[in-house]
Specification:
- By secondary structure, this protein is an alpha/beta fold.
- The protein has two domains: about 150 residues, Nucleotidyltransferase, domain 5 (2-Layer Sandwich), CATH 3.30.420; about 170 residues, Nucleotidyltransferase, domain 5 (2-Layer Sandwich), CATH 3.30.420.40.
- It has twelve helices and ten strands.
- The protein has a five-stranded mixed sheet, with helices on both faces. The chain has a five-stranded mixed sheet with strand order 8-7-6-9-10, with helices on both faces.
- α2 packs parallel to α3.
- The longest helix has 26 residues.
- It is globular, with a radius of gyration of 21 Å.
- The chain binds 5'-O-[(R)-(carboxyoxy)(hydroxy)phosphoryl]adenosine and zinc ion.
């Protein structure tokens, strides 16, 4: 089966073609094309929804064409078109959904809606579908979500924890903005934090707190951490000189909370595998930390491949294999019948 995936939930216009062999649990990624708008939004310090939607209009069809070309396929060979239906920026989502609907109508292809977070959850399956053992604990850390999900099987999944306020990626982005470092904050804080580590100098500054690390549930909270950093910067006249160390401390706090809570959940539910996905899972310290802890605890670790951590359409195509069709609200068949009768 050949699937064309389309993703436009935020500021990436993305299309992907995958070839699926369900019986062997194998996926071949024929193309994974991403057109990022980061440079455009950087000057505003974050994504501007209206600008993002307009850029999708310009970029999406060329991106889809490129993905077909890279896969060396004509659209007639595609069996199914799948598209992100939410959550995300509504005007961005609409662009992707309308494009997918139009292609489905014009080329008479099946159409399926996919949840964006499911895309992240299933991104480690792209390379490792048949190796993942259940039960598994999945941590998704993106710009909008921080979720712990217990996977009893490929399709039987249950959310057991989430952030009660800011998501981990949001915490990175807001802290970077506070320190005047630009957007997106995760990679910038990570690079500066790593530069402090690479210098191998001793910490001068006190650690930052770990909110909800010992709470009796699997929820997270990051907005207090961001406020703690703000108060520390306000008290420190030399904070600009110490900025790399503050980035290191901030990253250290987020990483420790994410790893320890995931491990606690993994132990409680006696899982065999840990899955980590979402934009923040590109973080080097987080990847190293999870690698070390899973070796120590004898758990199989499946980190999303780096190219599938931030938003992409391959993960959307992958998730469509395991998930129900999500809310493409108008009944497509009815709409098609109406359009046809309108043109008679
Ligand atoms: O999954 P994603 O591309 O988009 C959402 O669905 O939100 O995640 C984007 C988030 C941003 O908050 C960004 O700062 C963060 O992922 N991020 C990182 C790194 N790369 C991206 N956070 C920490 N370290 C990184 N290396
Ligand atoms: Zn995402």
């Amino acid at each position: 089966m050949i699937i064309l995936g389309i993703e436009t939930s935020c500021d990436e216009s993305a299309a992907s073609i995958i070839k699926v062999n369900k019986k062997n649990k194998e996926v071949q990624v024929l193309s994974n094309i991403i057109s990022s708008q980061i440079e455009i939004h950087q000057k505003y310090g974050g994504v501007v929804p209206e600008v993002a939607a307009r850029e999708h209009v310009f970029n999406l069809l060329p991106v889809i064409n490129k993905s077909l070309k890279k896969a060396n396929l004509n659209i007639s060979k595609v069996d199914e078109i799948v598209v992100t239906t939410g959550p995300g920026l509504i005007t961005s989502l609409i662009t992707g959904v309308q494009t997918a609907k139009t292609l489905s109508y014009a080329f008479n292809k099946k159409l399926k809606g996919v949840d964006h977070i499911s895309g992240h959850i299933y991104s480690p399956f792209i390379d490792n579908w048949k190796n993942i053992k259940f039960p598994a604990m999945s941590l998704t850390v993106s710009g909008g979500h921080t979720n712990l999900v217990l996977m009893l099987s490929e399709t039987k999944i249950k959310k057991i924890g989430k952030s009660l306020d800011d998501a981990a990626g949001e915490a990175y982005d807001k802290a970077a903005k506070m320190m005047g470092l630009g957007y997106p904050g995760g990679p910038i804080i990570s690079t500066l934090g790593q530069s402090f580590l690479d210098l191998s100098i001793e910490n001068k500054l006190e650690k930052l707190p770990r909110p909800m690390l010992h709470s009796p549930n699997f929820n997270f909270s990051f907005s207090g951490l961001k406020t703690s950093l703000l108060y520390r910067l306000q008290k420190d006249k030399n904070w600009k000189k110490n900025i790399a160390e503050y980035c290191y401390l901030y990253q250290e706090a987020i990483t420790e909370i994410l790893i320890k809570k995931t491990l606690k959940a993994a132990k409680k539910y006696q899982v065999k595998s840990i899955l980590v996905s979402g934009g923040v899972s590109a973080n080097k310290q987080l990847r190293q930390g999870f690698t070390a802890i899973s070796q120590k605890e004898n758990l199989k670790l499946f980190l999303s491949d780096l190219q599938y951590t931030t938003d992409n359409a391959t993960m959307i195509a992958m998730a469509s294999i395991f998930t129900e069709n999500t809310n493409i609200k108008d009944n497509w068949k009815k709409l098609k019948a109406k359009t046809e009768s309108d043109f008679k």
